[in-house]
Design brief:
single chain; 125 residues; alpha+beta; 60s Ribosomal Protein L30, Chain: A; 6-stranded mixed β-sheet; 28% strand
């Protein structure tokens, strides 16, 4: 079985020893993803959009997209922040909503308000 690893060059990938996504067994497993870049938005909605953008890039590189996401997990330090993200998530997944779980927990850095992890079907072929 072939395994393909996709790196986004995020600051924690090399420090911790992981990659943004792994394509294996007919699926694309995207690691928990927080807001990316030098200017991390302070609000949860901005961070959600930034994380989804990084996830979208990994899915595209893997040859798939949000329409093929079958599972998503949201991690938030404050569950009360989650409703602010709902419109963004509904727009992102559209007519293809995945199975979902939201967990309230601490994240790697207090500046982060949301982390998102997805599993998608890999492109056939």
């Amino acid at each position: 079985m072939a395994i393909r690893r996709i790196s986004s060059g995020g600051i924690y990938e090399q420090k911790i020893g992981y990659c943004r996504a792994v394509v294996a067994g007919g699926f694309v497993h995207v690691a928990g993803t927080t807001a990316q870049g030098a200017d991390i938005p302070e609000d949860v909605t901005g961070q959600c959009c930034s994380a989804l953008e990084a996830i979208g890039k990994a899915l595209t590189e893997a040859g798939t997209g949000f329409a093929n996401v079958v599972r998503v997990t949201y991690y938030l330090p404050d569950a009360a922040d989650f409703p602010a993200c709902w419109p963004v998530l509904a727009e992102t997944f559209g007519d293809n909503p995945p199975a979902a779980t939201m967990i309230e927990c601490g994240l790697i850095d207090p500046k982060y308000k949301i982390e998102i992890e997805v599993t998608a079907l890999a492109a056939e072929g």
